[in-house]
Amino acid sequence: MSDPTNDAGHLTIGGVDSLQLAEQFQTPLYVYDVSAIRDQIRAFKRVFEAQHFNYAVSYASKAFATIAMYQVAKQEACHVDVVSGGELYTAAQADFPMADVSFHGNNKSEKELREALALKVGTIVVDNFYELQLLGHLLAETPERTQNILLRVTPGISAHTHAYISTGQTDSKFGFDVDSGLAFKAAKLALANPQFNLLGIHAHIGSQIFDVAGFIGATQKLANILKDWHEQLDYTPSVLNVGGGFGIAYTKDDDPIPAEDFVEAILKTLRAQNLPFDLPAVWIEPGRSIVGPAGFQLYTVGSSKNVEGLRPYIAIDGGMGDNLRPALYQAEYEAVKADDPNAQPTQDVHLVGKYCESGDILINHAHLPAVQPGDVLAVKSCGAYGYSMASNYNRNPIPAVVFAENGQAKLVVRRQSYADLTQNDLSYD
Ligand SMILES: Cc1ncc(COP(=O)(O)O)c(C=O)c1O
Ligand SMILES: N[C@@H](CCCC[NH3+])C(=O)O
């Protein structure tokens, strides 16, 4: 599919000329096409509504967590999940309705749990026995109060994805293991404490998954767990949270099914399980599929290096500090020239960053037309886990974030200054 352009032939993002964005806000720059975010949320919702399910689309905000993004999630009547006190704080700063927040994490601290209770977070997704006990103690301080919880289980399903982002297998740091009986024990403990309102279970099998089979298997397994708890513990769940992980296209070689089709398969599978109680509400937690395709990164070309017989190196003004994914997971991306995104590539280069690491290769095989210093490149599909995993390595400031929608651009995160870099440093003179 060709990239959207304006009359000048320049790449547009959310209807705004990408060269104009680079000039106005400087590079490196994160830019989001906000309509694409809204469209994906709405596409998920349509599947649930067409199949008459009670549901929640809970945006996994670890993929991209800023005040503006929580505001968009609120405008779209999404739930969100958070995995740290910092994400929770940001959601609160955005005035996000706390009843629609789920709090995840495999090692939530007492401080974070107290913060969640003080803010009246809707659901705490309990991950382990330590947390079950700790949360029980904290709730006992206010005996009249109850807290909605989900139990995170590891269903023993291995998703076909990078090992670092696979989470549903038994040998995982997350959740109560099902096959060894730990999940059952956790359910018994949770039901024995009247201050816990056990909504149901949660499982997340991994991220950037293309094969629907893992989700079908996980849904069957989760349904069996709920049947078992119903039979043995006289328990009826009201929520089944099947997590996120729906894969997206990063390059032309990726050909995932539309993210909402995963949900359709999950719902069909669940309906076929003939549960001995009313169908629970189904919650999903997509992160990448909501913000990934909507995000672009703009960079300016600087130096290059040519050695006879080797592929050229072309360097841009950012790199692993603003997008760690290629260095961490060998993730692949595509770049286009912002002034002519549909130009035919004429060269295969290493597109590298400016960080002091040989592994700082943003795109190992970037297929580009001829480029000069000063040209702006746009890297596509980088809205998930780019900004949220950014660092100040080499003391490079984290770039600004701009939201573009209906031809308007708005700065939603300021570029860090050098002063920001030293603001927490104290003297040792
Ligand atoms: C518990 C949980 N839910 C949701 C997600 C979101 O996953 P994704 O961004 O792949 O949709 C993750 C990340 O893998 C997760 O750990
Ligand atoms: N950060 C990962 C995904 C982790 C998902 C969180 N459990 C990525 O960029 O692919």
From TrEMBL:
Where along this sequence does the record place binding of pyridoxal 5'-phosphate? Answer: G245, E285, P286, G287, R288, Y385
The modified positions for N6-(pyridoxal phosphate)lysine read K62
Identify the enzyme class.
Answer: lyase
Q: Which SUPFAM superfamilies match?
A: Alanine racemase C-terminal domain-like, PLP-binding barrel
Q: Where is the Orn/DAP/Arg decarboxylase 2 N-terminal domain?
A: 36-291
The catalysed reaction is: meso-2,6-diaminopimelate + H(+) = L-lysine + CO2
InterPro entries the UniProt entry points to: Ala_racemase/Decarboxylase_C (IPR009006), DAP_deCOOHase_LysA (IPR002986), De-COase2_C (IPR022643), De-COase2_N (IPR022644), Orn/DAP/Arg_de-COase (IPR000183), PLP-binding_barrel (IPR029066)
Biological processes per GO annotation:
lysine biosynthetic process via diaminopimelate
Say yes or no: keyword tRNA processing present: no
Q: Name one GO molecular function term.
A: pyridoxal phosphate binding
Alphabetic keyword roster? Amino-acid biosynthesis, Decarboxylase, Lyase, Lysine biosynthesis, Pyridoxal phosphate
List residues of the Orn/DAP/Arg decarboxylase 2 C-terminal domain: 30-383
Residue positions of the active site: C356 (proton donor)
Q: Which residues bind substrate?
A: R288, R325, Y329, E357, Y385
Write down the required cofactor(s): pyridoxal 5'-phosphate
Q: Please, which domain of life does this record's source organism belong to?
A: Bacteria
E.C. number: 4.1.1.20
Listed Gene3D superfamilies: Alanine racemase (3.20.20.10), Lyase, Ornithine Decarboxylase, Chain A, domain 1 (2.40.37.10)
Pathways per UniProt:
Amino-acid biosynthesis; L-lysine biosynthesis via DAP pathway; L-lysine from DL-2,6-diaminopimelate: step 1/1
Give the quaternary structure.
Homodimer.
HAMAP family, A to Z: LysA
The family note in this entry says: Belongs to the Orn/Lys/Arg decarboxylase class-II family. LysA subfamily.
- Cited function: Specifically catalyzes the decarboxylation of meso-diaminopimelate (meso-DAP) to L-lysine.
| NCBIfam families documented for this protein | lysA
Protein name (record):
Diaminopimelate decarboxylase
